[in-house]
Amino acid sequence: MSESENIIKKNVLGSKNYFKNEIEGKEYSTLLKNRSRRRRASPVENEVQAFICPVCGSSEILIDYVRSEKTCRTCGLVLEENIIDSTVRGTSRDKEGNSYSQNGAPVNISLHDGGMATGFKVRGNLKNKDVWYRLWRLNNQTRVRGTRERNLSRAFTELSLLVSNLSLSKSVRNESASIYRKALDKDLIRGRSISKLMVATVYIACKSCRVPRTLDEMAEVTDVDKKTIGTNYRFLVRELGLKLPIVSPSDYIPRFASKLNLSSEVEVKSIELVNEAQELGLTSGKDPASFAAAGLYASSMILGERRTQTEIARALGVTEVTIRNRFKELNNALDLV
User: Fold this and answer.
1) What pTM, to 2 d.p., does this model score?
2) In this predicted model, what pLDDT tens digit does every residue of 221-230 receive, in sequence order?
3) 3-state SS string over the chain?
């Protein structure tokens, strides 16, 4: 074999060895990547497999990072609470559409600026305290711009007092703020008292959230009479096209049973009597609070925790005559006593 042929042979063998090493290197790097992926995934798998339900023996564990719980998929037993979410998400929503964004507090519609403004308080012994007070006052003034925000600021101040005096929840407060904003957008506030319309929106929100309050209760904590509240209530419902759920007498019973210091047995019995009266059509066209009062009166007598008609009438804001009339209707229909 000539010298030139030997050189060509060496070059061919060298290129073969080079490509062989190249392919083996790529396969080895791919293998390393797969192993690293399995290694990264293995702690979660081992963590899931390490949990076995002590009740049903199932190893199917659901990790819920929203509730911070590990639960058994088979029987629903909570295996661990307050787990730490160590995952990193590139987006604010997962594949199921759940939001995981952590960008501060949500917008509060019961504040005129949505709670997005920045504020501060002047506290302690500060130098130039008068300057800081002027800055604080100027900051509060700049938060209210224009007639709309001024209107909302005053209205929601009234709303805070009403919610506090009536011991209402945050959902009722937000619903009332939403109704007032809709009325303001339709220019229904012009020429009317802000405080009186706000009382009507709270009355509507209570009905919408199934925690109704009577007109007497609303008039008691405000300077607005029942007739004005009723007029504004009908005006807002008509102009805004609101569809409110029908208030049931049973919605009043838990709160007034607690107010009268009655037991849970009396409360349950009252709800049963009222539901039977509704099925018979006795409550149609009647004040729900009056039937709630009659149900509480009848149940308290049946179960030996009797309350007088005067006590119940004072608690529910109805007359004793009304309670007697509703009780007679219940007694005639259900043969109670």
Assistant:
1) 0.63
2) 888 999 999 9
3) CCHHHHHHHHHHHHHHHHHHHHHHHHHHHHHHHHHHHHHHHHHHHHHHHHCCCCCCCCCCEEEECCCCEEEECCCCCEEEECCCCCCCCCCCECCCCCECCCCCCCCCCCCCCCCCCCCCCCCCCCCCHHHHHHHHHHHHHHCCCHHHHHHHHHHHHHHHHHHHHHCCCHHHHHHHHHHHHHHHHCCCCCCCCHHHHHHHHHHHHHHHCCCCCCHHHHHHHCCCCHHHHHHHHHHHHHHHCCCCCCCCHHHCHHHHHHHCCCCHHHHHHHHHHHHHHHHCCCCCCCCHHHHHHHHHHHHHHHCCCCCCHHHHHHHHCCCHHHHHHHHHHHHHHHCCC
